[in-house]
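Bench log, entry 3. Co-assembly request; chain sequences pasted below exactly as received.
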Amino acid sequence: MSDDVNRQVLLAERPKAKLEESHFTRRDVPIPEPGDGEALTRTLYISLDAANRAWMSPVATYTKPVEIGGVMDGFTLAEVVRSNDPSLAPGDIVECMNGWQDYGVAPARHLHKVSPIKPLSRWLSALGVTGKTAYFGLLDIGQPKEGETVLVSAAAGAVGSFVGQIAKLKGCRAVGIAGSDDKCRWLTDELGFDAAINYKTEDMTPALRAACPDGIDVYFDNVGGPILEAALFQTNQNGRIVCCGSVSQYDTATPDPGPRGVPGLLVVKRIKMQGFIVMDFYARRQQAESDLAAWIVDGKIKVREDIIEGLENAPAALIGLLAGENTGKRMVRVAPEP
Ligand SMILES: NC(=O)c1ccc[n+]([C@@H]2O[C@H](COP(=O)([O-])OP(=O)(O)OC[C@H]3O[C@@H](n4cnc5c(N)ncnc54)[C@H](OP(=O)(O)O)[C@@H]3O)[C@@H](O)[C@H]2O)c1
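Structure output for the full assembly:
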């Protein structure tokens, strides 16, 4: 954090294959001044999301690509420092898109004020984009019914760890796929998943058969690639595949071709495969926030945050997230909570 300069992390070069720290550069600039109807905010936390890597490619996703030489994009939680709009006052806490820098200026209508709960970091984990992605993706797109089997990949990550826990509290069998034995143990021993598969050491097809003896009713896909294909072949008639993201395909120059079985298996087994973006559900965000908050208070959902200190460590922290270093929701603390 800085009181007199605005430190920025910029995209220096587009990664063509694996992301490296050399794809980023840093610069210090003066703290910007807010204009009419705008507010100046100080970044407290930056959310690190697997999708950040996709935003660095030249191809537009649901957002436009980060510009070369531009501040790296990112969801942030920030404190209002100065406001030229009556809707916000200094000290207010807002969700915003400051990106990877100490300070941002934006029209007040783009800043979403949140309640000052403790710790504030919950607004980037359970109550933020992460929790809401799990909530709406599973409940609205996946539509799990009591007694069904819900499989989720990247299960020990931010979104995945909430998906499995929500599936459990809806009376489903929850099965997770993750990249280490420690992560698998955390899923079953701490979060209450019924089974977990280490995709790096186990053969997916027999492992899925053993973990999902009644087949898969809902597959919440965070990874795409060969894991999606293996799950597709074991999905039951009338099953639902929730396409949330494809992290296995983001950080490579040689993405896998689409899974075999599309469209043949979808037709024969009447499987519904649907993508979504959490922002589609923005109008219903309060419903998700209030359910998630109640489940946390009741101990039905556990929250694990993986907080990396310091803006300067954001590039290494994103590279680490893509390599599976994180358990739970990874974020960067840029300034202490007020
Ligand atoms: N649709 C939406 O609106 C929306 C919103 C937010 C996030 N998402 C998506 O949700 C997914 C999870 O994102 P997140 O930000 O919560 O990240 P995360 O799950 O906390 O971290 C990513 C995890 O992916 C796993 N991974 C990396 N490479 C993999 C590979 N080749 N195969 C299988 N797993 C791999 C790693 O864990 P392992 O150790 O298990 O490999 C890593 O911890 C991403 O696909 C993201 O794009 C979608």
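The pocket of NAP is lined by residues 49-51, 129-130, 133, 153-154, 156-160, 178-180, 183, 222-223, 227, 244-248, 276-278, 321-322, 324, 326, 330 (CB under 6 Å). The mean pLDDT is 96.
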